[in-house]
UniProtKB/TrEMBL annotation:
Key words of the record: Signal
The protein's name: Exo-alpha-sialidase
Secretion signal, residue range per the UniProt entry: 1-22
Keyword Iron: no
Taxonomic classification: Bacteria, Pseudomonadati, Myxococcota, Myxococcia, Myxococcales
The keyword Signal belongs to this UniProt entry's keyword annotation: yes
Length: 420
């Protein structure tokens, strides 16, 4: 029998405050502040780069990059996603072992990223956080992964604004389900996308739609049959109804396999509107939707190499590609991970480059609706090992990024706030 739990915690190395299993949650109380470093007085922590090295020759660019206003490092917490809350603060999810086992993490901060409260959710097995989104009443929906008895399932939590949960639990069948992304839906529920292992041992791209009370309304695989692996990595609500998801599709070819970027749109009830591919050796990792179409970001490998380049495609509402941009940043691995629509209608994108096997540098950039790069920036020194996983637009017109930082022995969750 799976035992759902809640735990109150403090994100300071060596300090944890576990509470009893089960029962009603207490009122959230201010907790200790995690390790953080202010940028004030440290101008060397920001680094502007020449964007011409990042932009294909036929694309013009100009650098008006935002300022890195603040960042925080959190110990004993692995990176997930982040949102801004209605009070101007932030909420982020990930996973933590601060209480001994692996739990889904939800942390609420003020506008200066000082922790107001933090909770861990899950079971006595292994549970990891993937995505957090705000609900209409100011609470939170969390998507995560549950692992027990060699079986992976989706794990979903809905909380009130103080972190007290309405419901939580694992969802899945006899096969394996791996979550990758989630969005709260207009009906108050949520949709989670990822992949599931099918009966012949291959993997299908997978969607599962939940009601506001945690009931599964429908689920839908995009089947590979015995052809390879399909998976979703990103999802977005479509204006006017329905959902668009992106990922990758592996197909068998003479002498081996090839992977293509994969995009699919479904109605609010799960009926397929279209599905299509883009780019040989491409992978999509994030998607944003407008009333006129969708922009997908990810990476693509150069033929015959293991070198990845930035890859962005804009699609119309029926899945036709309007433009494609491939950008070589000059390193063996260039990856885009998330995209959001800015207030001016253009696209803010986060990713990273990998100059070497041991080095990663967080990258933020902005593209217009025609695929031109407006600016790009590496906000941290090249000697820092940093990456970006997700981003959210903020009320002041800027944005916030969640990712990671490593000092060579310890990996920290890294939150970065950028000006408009």
């Amino acid at each position: 029998m799976i035992q759902s739990t809640w735990k109150n915690l403090v994100l300071i190395a060596g300090l944890a405050a576990p509470l009893a299993y089960g029962g009603a949650l207490p009122d959230a109380a201010p907790l200790g502040q995690a390790k953080g470093v202010a940028l004030t007085g440290h101008p060397a922590f920001t680094k502007q780069v020449d964007v011409t090295a990042l932009v294909a020759s036929e694309v013009h660019a100009f650098a008006v990059a935002p300022v890195l206003q603040d960042f925080q490092l959190f110990t004993q917490a692995n990176s997930g996603s982040i949102i801004q809350t209605s009070d101007g603060g932030y909420a982020f999810t990930g996973s933590t072992t601060v209480l001994g086992d692996l739990d889904i993490l939800l942390v609420k901060t003020d506008a200066l990223m000082n922790i107001q409260w933090a909770y861990a959710y899950g079971t006595t097995a292994e549970d990891t956080g993937v995505e957090v989104r705000a609900t209409s009443e100011g609470g939170f929906m969390l998507a995560g992964q549950h692992f027990q008895n060699n079986n992976f399932d989706f794990y979903v939590v809905r909380t009130d604004p103080t972190g007290a949960y309405y419901w939580q639990g694992p969802y899945g069948g006899a096969l394996q389900e791996y979550p990758a992304a989630m969005e709260v839906t207009p009906d108050g529920g949520c949709i989670i996308v990822g992949k599931t292992r099918n009966n012949v041992g291959y993997e299908d791209a997978y969607m599962m739609k939940f009601s506001a009370t945690g009931s599964v309304q429908w689920s839908k695989p995009f089947s590979s049959g015995a052809d390879g692996t399909y998976e979703f990595e990103g999802v977005a609500n479509v204006p006017g109804g329905g959902y668009v998801a992106v990922g990758s599709k592996q197909v068998r070819v003479t002498g081996g396999w090839e992977t293509y970027g994969f995009i699919a749109k479904v109605s609010s009830t799960g009926a397929t509107s279209f599905q299509t591919t883009s780019g040989r050796f491409a992978y999509f990792t994030g998607v944003a939707a407008t009333s006129t179409g969708y922009v997908a970001v990810g990476y693509i490998y150069r033929a015959g190499t293991f070198d990845a380049e930035f890859y962005t495609v804009r699609f119309n509402t029926t899945g036709g590609a309007l433009w494609t941009r491939t950008i070589n940043a000059g390193t063996p691995g260039d990856y885009l991970s998330d995209v959001r629509i800015a207030g001016d209608g253009n696209y803010v994108i986060v990713g990273m480059i990998t100059p070497s096997d041991s080095q990663r540098n967080l990258l933020v950039l902005k593209m217009d609706t025609s695929g031109n790069t407006l600016w790009s920036s590496f906000p941290y020194p090249s000697t820092w090992v940093t990456d970006g996983q997700s981003l959210a637009m903020t009320q002041d017109g800027g944005f916030v990024v969640s990712g990671g930082y490593s000092d060579g022995t310890t990996r920290y969750m890294l939150l970065s706030k950028f000006s408009p």
